[in-house]
Amino acid sequence: MTGKTKTNPVKRRDFVRKSLHVIVGLTVGGLAGILSRKSSAEETVWQLDPNICIQCEKCAVNCVLPHSAVKCVHSYSMCGYCDLCSGYLQPGAKSRDTGAESQLCPSGAIKRTYIEDPYFEYTIDEKLCVGCGKCVKGCNSFGNGSLYLQARHDRCLNCNQCSIARRCPSRAWKRVPASQPYILRGDESGKFREG
Amino acid sequence: MKLKRLKIFVVALVLLCPVFVFSQVQERFPKPDFESGYVRPDLLTPAPRAAVWEYMDIFVLVAALSLATYFAHNQRSRRNIFLLMVFALAYFGFYRKGCVCSVGAVQNVSYAFFNPAYIIPLSVVLFFILPLVFALFFGRTFCAAVCPLGAIQDAVVLNPINVPEWLAALLGVFPYVYLGLAVLFAATGAGFIICQYDPFIGFFRFGADFNMVIFGFSMLLLGTVVARPYCRYLCPYGVLLNWMSRLSRRHVRITPDECNNCRLCEESCPFGAIKKADDETQPMKREGDVKQVAALLVLLPVVVIGFGWIGSRLDVSLSRLHPTVSLAEEVLLENAGKRTEMTDATKAFRATGKPSEELFAEASVIQSQFRRGGWILGGFIGLILCLKLIGLFIRRRQLEYDVDKGTCLSCGRCFAYCPYEQVRLGLMTPEELKELDRRDVRIKQFRA
C-alpha cells in the first residue's frame, strides 16, 4: 500500500484532500449542530429600556436612518394631563400656551389639546418627533414619567449592530425577542412581558 | 422635641427621594377622573417585520445559492450569473438594506458561542452555514452571485489591472487579521466591527457616517481598477469560504473539456485567480526551496509564540474599545480626581448606584479575556504568515491552466475565453479548433 502511494504522489494528494474535505465537513456540521442548539426560530430586535435611558439626545442623531427610528411615546394611562406640563413647556415659559417660544420640543411634535378644566391631552406626532428626548427629560424630572423613548419597529431597520446602541452612554439598548418588541411603562408595561 | 426632629428627618428623606431614584417612574400627579366622557387613547405599538419574511430571506438565499451553482457548473453562463448577481444586489442589498448578511453573521456566531445569554436567530445561523456548505461542495458560488457586497463591487469592475504577486500576497494577510479581530471583539462583547466598518452598507441605506461614505466611495473607485478590493483584501468571511473552496468536491474549471495550454484565458481573470501552466521545457529546481521551507517550519513555533506574546501585550489598548472597560477608565479618573467634569456615561453609571469596585472587577475580567484572546489572535496571525510564506516556496508542477480554488469566485468570466467552450456552445466546429491548435503550435515553435 505504502509502495503504491509513493509511486503515485497525485493519489496521495487526493487522499489528503478528500480526508480534509470530510474532516472540515464534519466540523462545519458540528458547528451547525451546536449553533442550532443555541438558536431560536425567533428573530431579535433592538429596543431601549426607558428605565435606564438618561435622555442624552444621542438617539436623535446616531440612527442610520435620516430620521431616527427612536420616537417619543406617551403612556396615557400614566399621564397627569397637567396644564403646567414639564414635558411640553419650556422651563420658565412666560405663558402656558401653544406658542413656539413656550414649547420644549424643538420640532413642535407634541400637540396640546384641551379636554376639560384643568386637563390637557398631549399627543406625539411621530412624523415630526426627532427622538431627542428633551420632553422625556422634562416629564421624568417633574412629571409622572409618562413620556419616554422607544425604537419604533415600523421604522427600525433592525441592523445587526444598532448604531445608536453602540454609542449609548447608559447602555440602555438591548436585543429583545421579536414577540416582545417594546419595553413599556404604566398600564401597558405588561403587554410584552414574558409569562 | 425628639418627635419633631424625626418629623424633619422623614420630610427631608421624602424630599430627597426623587434625587436618589433617578429617572424612575413615579406618580407625582394623580391620574385625573374625566367627567366629559373623554377616553384615553391607546399607545400604538407597531410590530416588527413578520417572521414570514425571515423565512422568505432564507428561501431566497437557498434559491440564489442553488441557482448560482447551477449557472456556474451546469450552464457555465456568465450572463446568468451576472443577472442573478444584480437580483441579489437588489434583494439583499437595497431591499433588505444589507442586514442580514453572511459576512456579518460571523460575529453573531462568535458572540453566541461566548455569551450564553444571547440567543442567535436561526436565520443568522443559516446565513452563516449555508454559503460555507455550498463552498465545501461547489466552490465560492456565493461570492459570484449572492453576496450583495461582492455584487456592488463586481458591477464597477471597468478596467482591472493585475496586482503584482508580492503585493497580493502581502494584502492577502489582512482578511485573516480582520477576521481574528472581528471574532475577538464579538466574543468579548466589544461590538461588531465588520458591521461598523462595512463600506457599502451606506449605499444600501442611502445614508451613513461621512467617513464611511468616503471609505465606500473610495472602495468603489479603487474597485474600477483593482477588481473587488474588499472581497480580496478585507472580507473576513472570504477567509472561511477560501478554506472551504480549496477542499471543494466539484469546482468550476476554465475549460469544459481539456486544456490545450493555448493561453487565451491567461489574462481573463480580473481577480488573479488563474494558475498558469509551467513551461515544460524548464526543469524545476527544488533544493533551495526545500531548505527555505525547512527553515520556516523550524521558525514556525517561534513566530507563533512571538506573535501570540505581542497579541497578549495589546490587551490594554484593545480592551479600551469595550464599553465596560472604557467606562471603568473614566470612572477611575473621576474617582482619582483627575477629571472634574462627568461624561454622560459616568453620569448614567453613578445614577445606577452600582459601586465602582464592581465595575472595575468586570473591566478586569474583560481585560483578561482580551489577554487570552490576544494570545490566540497573535498566534493565529503568526501561523498564517508562516503558512503563507511556506506556500510561496512550495511549487507544484502545473500541467495546465486551471483556477486557484481558494481565490476563484466562480464568476464565470474566463469561460468564454476557452476555445473548447466555444466548441461546446457551437460557436466553433471541432475542425476549426484543430486548425487553431496547429496554428498555435506553429506560433509556439516560432516563439521558441
Notes on the structure:
The complex is a heterodimer of chains A (195) and B (448). Chain A is an alpha+beta fold and 195 residues long. Helices cover 25% and strands 18% of the residues of chain A. In chain A, strand 4 and strand 5 (119-124) form a beta hairpin. Mean pLDDT of chain A is 89; it is low at 1-5. Chain B is mainly alpha-helical and 448 residues long. Chain B contains 21 helices and 3 strands. Chain B has a two-stranded antiparallel sheet with strand order 2-3. Chains A and B meet through helix 2, strand 1 and strand 5 of A and helix 4, strand 1, helix 5 and helix 18 of B. Strand 1 of chain A pairs parallel with strand 1 (120-121) of chain B, so a sheet runs across the interface.
What is the element layout, followed by pairings?
The complex is a heterodimer of chains A (195) and B (448).
Chain A: H1 2-7, H2 9-38, E1 39-40, E2 44-48, H3 59-62, E3 70-74, E4 110-116, E5 119-124, H4 134-142, E6 147-151, E7 173-177
Antiparallel strand pairs in A: 2-7, 3-6, 4-5
Chain B: H1 2-20, H2 51-75, H3 78-95, H4 102-114, E1 120-121, H5 122-138, H6 141-145, H7 148-154, H8 165-171, H9 174-188, H10 193-196, H11 201-205, H12 210-223, H13 229-233, H14 236-246, E2 274-275, H15 287-313, H16 315-319, H17 323-335, H18 344-352, H19 356-393, E3 402-403, H20 419-424, H21 430-447
Antiparallel strand pairs in B: 2-3
Helix pairs in contact in B: 2-3, 2-5, 3-7, 4-5, 4-9, 5-14, 9-14, 9-19, 15-19, 17-19
